[in-house]
Structure formats: structure tokens, C-alpha cells
Amino acid sequence: MKKNRIKHFFKEIHRAFRLQRMFAALHLKKLMEYKVDFTIGAVGFILEQVINIAFLTIIFGRVENLRGWGYYEVLFIYGFSLFPNGLDHLLFDNIWNVGYWMIRKGEFDKYLTRPINTLLIVTVEEFQLDAFGKLLLGIALMVTSIRHIDLPFIWYDIPLALIAILFGMLIYSSIKTIFGAIAFWTKRSGHLMEVAYNLNQFSQYPVSIYSRAVRGAITYVIPFALTSYYPASYLLRHTRPVFSILSPAVAAIILMIIALIVWHKGLDAYESAGS
Amino acid sequence: MHLIKRLKKYLHTYLPFTRAGIQAAMVFRTNFIAWFVGDIVYCLVMYYIWLAVFNASGEGMMNGFTMTDMTVFLFITAMTRFLTDSDGSYDVGEEVKDGNIAMRLIKPVSFHSTFLFTEIGWKLLTFGLIFAPVVIGVEIYKYNAYGGFSLDIAAFLLYLVSMILSYLFSFYMNVCFGFMAFFLKNLWGFNIIKSSILRFLSGAIVPLALMPGALRQVLEWLPFSSLCYTPVMIYMGKYSGSEAALRLAIQFGWVIGFYLISKLILSTALRHVTVQGG
């Protein structure tokens, strides 16, 4: 019985990946049709970050370092933070729609009729290409900063970084799912998602600049710091390897379990708002 | 006499739009409380960064800004932007796209004024719900930092005037942008581009006083410092009486300028308008 369920679970995941590929192909075709719109969206998200970079550059014209972190190290952390954030944006953007209007307008019902897990179909259906702006900027920032820093690089840093990015992305999407699922009870929770999601602004800078309370909150409560600062500072200085790599994984798994429970409880409580 | 009568008629026509705006804002109040929290998070991040900067520089003052000034600057800037930002470009754009603009055009009311008065409704509610409490909080902070009451009533009244000018400037500029919807579909992305650039150019990210020399001079000459930096500096009492008067006059000039441009765009656009959808 148990073995069967596990098998079923992997089958579902496999199907989801296949669907994901199909939807991605669909969205890429859309992209070819609306090239200008795609460029505008991507440029918008790049610019939003670029003004923060400009701000950092102006600041570092006045000081050498921020609590021990130099200009290029701060850029590295900032650049790293854009990967988990950008990947979540690329793959899990549709959860915003659930929180903001799908349930309220009764459009969520369509997912209930599909023969696949609702959360999977919600996430694979949308493929937010605007996110490429963030990812490209992340790559540009990392490449620029690495050329100015002596990284204590060992080969396994690359797989570790990729793992940290993957779990970082799951931290983002789990937090979004938890707050998005509240809409099953309240019909609308986009604003709550926004409040939680906005705390990620803290995670783009070295957490050593914050007071202890803020640091604790973004490490242990809404752990966005685990998606960027900790793994990035490990890559920069090889400090605290175990905590830096393990904590994002542990946090991501815990948050994912909470997200799945809240989502399915929400589905049970869900009453359609449509006519 | 005649003028008062006309004004009365004008207000009689458009005040219902303001009432509708307040009601709409009431419905969406949780939304803008969420935006507000987002802005406050941003202020806190900036606060800690500046704290680290002041710490690292070892100086108590940078180009006339102390850490206390910087804190006041951050929060008053956020509030000023909250109150003076206009969604005009989005609303106009959406109506151009879905064709509802036709309904607005056939009614015997001014295109601009209906948008303006509706948004004023939103702003009134924002003022009471968010702006007033935060400003009181800032004043309490200043009271603690300076060990005394330091609100200059005259400066505050000038600040309100300056903010109204900022809002009108922002409104007419955004109406101009709204007509971009004729050419673009991704208005959302376009709005992010616009607001990111404006935030930087208006001195909302880094105070102009702290910018590198050449950049600072360019930005002071561009109209955008009128949008945010001018009212905030007036609030903080950084301008002398005559300088404040000059800045207000510049703001007023831009309001008139963009008002005329938006009228021009409207009349040109209407000659070419083909409403999509019926």
C-alpha cells in the first residue's frame, strides 16, 4: 500500500514535468509572438534591481565596506539572491493568481476537474518569462564580482551552490503557497502573500548590518536569509559550511511540508465562489 | 461671482467621483495596507544600510545629513511617494485597451477630471489611514532624537502645498504615459520600468545631496526632483524661505507644462482612437 503511494507520487511528478515541458513550449511560442512585451517585462525587472545596484555603488563611493563586506562581496550576495528568487518567479508565478483573483472569481474550479494534483497543475501551467531578466542580471553580477574577489574555490562549491539555489527557490515557493492557500478560506490572500514576500528585500544584503531581532526573523521565522546570504557568504569565505548549506535544505523541506498541509486543508475547506 | 458659481458647478459635477474613489479604496484597503508594509520593509532595509554607512564612515554628518535626518528622509519620502504617486497611466491604459474609454468619452464630463477626482478619493483615505499615523510617528521620533518639539508649522503647510503640486505633476505625467497603451500590451512591465527610473531620478532612493557631483547637477535640472525630493526637503526644513518659494514655482511650472502636454496628447489621440472591443 505504502509502496504504491510512493510509486504513484513519482508518477505524478513525472507527469508534471512532462506537462511543464509542454506549457513551457507553449509560452516560448507566445514569446515569439510578443517579443516587445517580453523585452519590456524583462527590462522592467532588471531595472527594478539596477536602481538598487546604483544605490550600492553610490554608497560605496563613500565607504570601503559595510560591516566588513566590500563592494564586490555585497554585489555577489545580491547577485546570488536573484537566482532562487528568479527561479521561483519563473516556475511558481501562478500562485499569485490563486491568491489574488482565481478563487474569488471562481476560476479555480477548472483545476479540480483535471486528473492531476492541483498544486502541481497550478504551478506548471504558468511559465513567467519576465523572470529571465532577474536571472540574467544575477549572472552578470556574479561574473563581475567574481573577477574582483579572490574566491576560496573548491570544485564541490558548484554543486553545493546549485543545491542551495534549488532549496532557496523552494523556500520562496513554499512561503508563497502557504500564504496563497489562505485564500481557500478567505477567497483572497494576495495582499498577505505580498506582505510575506516583501520581507525578501532584507535578504539581498549582508545580514550582519541588521539588528539581532531582524536577523533572527529572516533566519528562523520567514527564512529568506537562508536563500541568499548564508550560502553566498559560504561561497565567499568558506565560513560555517554546515549551517550555510544544510539550513536552506532543512528550512525548505519543513516549509514545503507545511505548504502541502495548508494547501490540502484549504482544498478541503474550499467552496467555489463561481456560479 | 461668476467664477464661484462655475467652481461650484464643477465641484458639484466631480465630487461624486471622489466619493466613489473613497468607497473603492475602502474595498481595497487591505491591498494598500499590504503595499504600505512593503514600503516600510524597504525603509527598514535602507535604514540599516545607512546605519552601517554612517558607522563605517566615522562621520556624524554627510553633506548636511545626520543619521537622524536620514531616518526622517526615508520615512517621509515613502509617505510622500505613497500620497503623490498616480495610477493614472494604468487606469487610462486599461480603459484604452478594453474599450471602456468610449463610455467615458461620450459622457458630458472632462476626461481628465473624472480620473483626477476619483483618485483624490483614494488619496484622502490613504492620508487618514497611513500618512497621518506615520508622520505622527516620525515627529515622535524627532522629539526623542532632538529632545524637544521640532515641527515647524509653516514648513509643514508648505510641504502639503508642495505635495499637492507633486501629485498633480505626477497625475498629468502619468496620463501622458497611459496613452502608450495604444502601442504596448505589457503595461505592467512598462509601469515597472517607468516607476523604477522615476524613483531614482526623483531622489527617492539616494538624497540628491549625497549623489556624486555631476549626477546631482543633472538630476537637479531634470523635472523629476520636483516629484519627491522638493516636498521632502521642505518638510525637513532644508530649504530657506526664498529657496522653497523658488522650488514651489518650479513645481508649479512643471504641473502646467505636463497639463498642456496631456491635453495635446488627448486631443491628438482621440482623433486616431479606434476602440477595440464593443
Average pLDDT of chain A works out at 89
Largest interface: A-B, 42 and 38 residues
Q: How large, in whole angstroms, is the Cα Rg of chain B?
A: 20 Å
Annotation field: number of helices of chain A:
13
Query: Please, what is the average pLDDT of chain B?
Result: 85
Tell me about this structure.
The complex is a heterodimer of chains A (275) and B (278). With 275 residues, chain A is mainly α. Chain A is built from 13 helices and 2 strands, in the order H-H-E-E-H-H-H-H-H-H-H-H-H-H-H. In chain A, strands 1-2 form a two-stranded antiparallel sheet. In chain A, strand 1 and strand 2 form a beta hairpin. In chain A, helix 1 packs parallel to helix 6, helix 3 crosses helix 8 and helix 12 runs antiparallel to helix 13. With 278 residues, chain B is mostly helical. Chain B has one domain. Helix content of chain B is 77%, strand content 0%. The termini of chain B are far apart. Chains A and B meet through helix 2, strand 1 and helix 10 of A and helix 2 and helix 8 of B.
Topology:
The complex is a heterodimer of chains A (275) and B (278).
Chain A: H1 2-33, H2 35-60, E1 65-66, E2 69-70, H3 71-91, H4 94-102, H5 109-112, H6 118-125, H7 132-146, H8 157-181, H9 183-186, H10 190-198, H11 212-221, H12 229-237, H13 241-269
Antiparallel strand pairs in A: 1-2
Helix pairs in contact in A: 1-6, 2-7, 3-7, 3-8, 3-12, 4-8, 8-10, 8-13, 12-13
Chain B: H1 2-27, H2 29-57, H3 67-84, H4 88-98, H5 101-106, H6 111-146, H7 153-178, H8 187-201, H9 213-221, H10 229-235, H11 241-272
Helix pairs in contact in B: 1-6, 2-3, 3-6, 3-10, 4-7, 7-10, 7-11
